[in-house]
Amino acid sequence: MSVSVHPYRRYMREHVRRTTTCPGCGNGIITQAILRAIEGLGQDMNDFVFVSGIGCASWIPSPLFAADTLHTTHGRPIAFATGLKLGLPGKNVMVISGDGDLAAIGGNHLIHAARRNIGLTVILVNNGIYGMTGGQTAPTTPRGVTTITSPYGSLEHPFDICAMVAAAGAPYVARWTTYHPRQMTRSITKALQKNGFALVEAISQCPVQFGRAAKLGKAIDMLKYYKSKSVNWKRARDLGEEELRGRIIVGEFVNMEKPELASQWTRLKEEVMEG
Ligand SMILES: Cc1ncc(C[n+]2csc(CCOP(=O)(O)OP(=O)(O)O)c2C)c(N)n1
Ligand code: SF4
Ligand SMILES: [Mg+2]
Q1: Which residue's CA is the nearest one to ligand 2's atom 1?
Q2: Which residues have C-beta under 5 Å from ligand 3, the single-atom ion?
Q3: Stated pTM of the model
Q4: For residue 51, which phi and psi values (nearest 5 degrees)?
Q5: Per residue in 50-108, pLDDT tens?
Q6: What domains does the chain contain, in order, with CATH numbers?
Q7: 226-250, pLDDT tens digit by residue?
Q8: Ligand 2 near 248 CB (within 6 A)
Q9: Residue 202 Cα, ligand 2 centroid: separation in angstroms?
Q10: Dist. CA 261–CA 90, nearest whole Å
Q11: How far does residue 125's CA lie from ligand 3's centre (Å)?
């Protein structure tokens, strides 16, 4: 009897037999988009270091990926990744973590890494909630959504992460949902090729916490919701405030060139050492 093996099993560590992810979670779609991009570019996992913080999204690379992985403290993956990139500028350093990890406790690291334009590829998994810790309000939770820490509906205004990172100066910024795996793969491919700070925000279904809190139903209902609510920013430009209410603006927002920090740092170090 032949046993079919998933084509991406070879990207996984031999001894890891299962994932911590709940059935229906968007993390599986994002994992495939990341691995498709790496495979498409013919890149070697040995040339990567994957850095994550704490949260469900942080389990995407660690301990699964057969590569160097660094599972750091909550909110700090970009700080660790910054040190790594400056010490090992030849490595592809990819940060994969959640909206709470990267935009709440780690928000300062995010904007300053974008400002410095250090060559990191950041996949920010935005499920609109603190998933792993039981469903608390995050800085991405839409207004009015009921969570265990906002039982009468969140009164806060959520971050537009892409706008924030673009304003901080990042040369590559894109957002897709898990309903758009092909577009997400293309953006991750471009992000990996960018010599600079590149962020792909992946809006992702968490049926267990967010789906329940926002009464969006099961994973499939959430994917249908993403399908019906998403609009590319090029089309959104022509829509009025009322038509845009509740919509998810997707697309590639920034793609430009500017000097990258780690390569400049390396050159400067060599010049100073040579005297
Ligand atoms: C310093 C510190 N504060 C708080 C926590 C508890 N904590 C762990 S993960 C997490 C939030 C996770 O949310 P997110 O980053 O959005 O990831 P998700 O689980 O939704 O993928 C929190 C608050 C912690 N581990 N360390
Ligand atoms: S709690 Fe939500 S984000 Fe975490 S693994 Fe389960 S479905 Fe995914
Ligand atoms: Mg989250």
Answers
A1: 131
A2: 98-100, 127, 131
A3: 0.97
A4: -120, 130
A5: 999 999 999 999 999 999 999 999 999 999 999 999 999 999 999 999 999 999 999 99
A6: 19-274 (3.40.50.970)
A7: 999 999 999 999 999 999 999 999 9
A8: no
A9: 14
A10: 13
A11: 7
